[in-house]
Design brief:
homodimer; alpha+beta; Jelly Rolls; 4-stranded antiparallel β-sheet; DNA-binding
Chain lengths: 191, 191
DNA sequence: AGATTCCATTCACCTATGTTAATGGAATAA
DNA sequence: TTATTCCATTAACATAGGTGAATGGAATCT
């Protein structure tokens, strides 16, 4: 078993035999990204379901003025990507980029079809994954509605204290939906 | 066929024979809600997947101060509810309420299990539905990040002009994440 | 019908965050 | 190493949206 983190990620949601896991593990595509390297850009079709084995990735969209808006920040142990683009074949609207040296384990369509047919428990896993991703974004909307930027900042660094050292602050500001200057202003209050 | 709207909703995503559709239609639970009647409240477990045949429903969450935050507004032809609560059995954090006389067609667990086993195409439909709901919320987050309240208002009434007559303005304000006074201020500009 | 509650609107004032510009240090490139 | 770009921070000023209070009309209750 080369990637116990991945096995654990599955076991959190489904009852998966080591054998069924290894059947998948042997088919994974391993990909390494340097700091600031892109996994995918707006307009491309994503052909993989990527799991972050190590590192940190940021998912942002560009608005009409070309301004970046960070929608997701994801780290080791999590999936990311654009499920819609993967399943529908439509070009993505997202830009997904590593901000630390990152290792990905990726499932392509062929492997996805194979393992969900061979081990139906994986089908359940991916349905649960989408469901969880959906719930998480609903929470994110609720937070944007109900908490101030300051409160969102405090919650974020409380949950993921390492974040401030791992990515540029302007990306954290963008994720919080404020400008870097405002983030600085908030941070000053807590020094 | 009693509910062509529902059949159309399925046909938008999957290739469904009338026979397979009728097999479901006969098992639907029909529910009528009065104006302002709740479908479900925070803390309850939702036991159905509801489709809106007629009317209009609002989904909101309460924050720590007891303030309502409207997360979704949904109308005829759409599904709603809390997929997470339905599939996991966990109590919901949402309050779902009709704001017009509403008719729902609901699928319970027994029916869900039956039709997805009998007609696997339904399985695909529900995976696509979750996926679409997920994409929609990602868009909602992007809009909250990238557009002003004024721009979000203009987009909303452009997409759903009837909304202003169908629900109280304070709910629209909440959905836009502003106060009713601010909505009035914006509306004044466009008279 | 009359009383009551609810709701949209307006106004004056307030606050959080945006904007523009400047600075210096850190990271990167030559 | 030096030059250059990038980034976090600060400050002064600008603005979108919040707050609290008042008003009048619509809807609901008795």
């Amino acid at each position: 078993m080369k990637y116990p983190t991945l096995y654990q990620a599955f076991r959190k949601h489904i009852d998966l035999s080591p054998k069924a896991y290894l059947d998948l593990e042997n088919r994974l595509i391993h990909k390494t990204l340097d700091k600031k390297e892109f996994l995918i850009n707006e307009g491309q079709v994503i052909r993989y379901l990527p799991f972050i084995a190590k590192g940190l990735m940021v998912n942002y969209r560009l608005d009409g003025e070309g301004e970046k808006h960070v929608i997701q920040i994801r780290w080791a142990g999590l999936w990311l990507g654009d499920l819609y683009s993967f399943f529908s074949g439509a070009p993505t609207k997202f830009n997904i980029r590593a901000y630390q040296p990152t290792e990905l384990l990726m499932i392509n369509h062929e492997t996805f079809d194979y393992i969900t047919k061979k081990h139906p428990v994986y089908e359940r896993f991916f349905r649960l994954s989408i469901q969880n991703a959906y719930i998480e974004t609903l929470n994110q909307i609720f937070n944007l509605h109900s908490s101030s930027a300051e409160a969102r900042y405090l919650e974020l660094i409380n949950n993921v204290p390492a974040l401030l050292n791992d990515i540029p602050h302007y990306l954290i500001a963008s994720y919080l939906s404020i400008k870097p200057q405002s983030l600085s202003r908030i941070r000053k209050k807590y020094k």
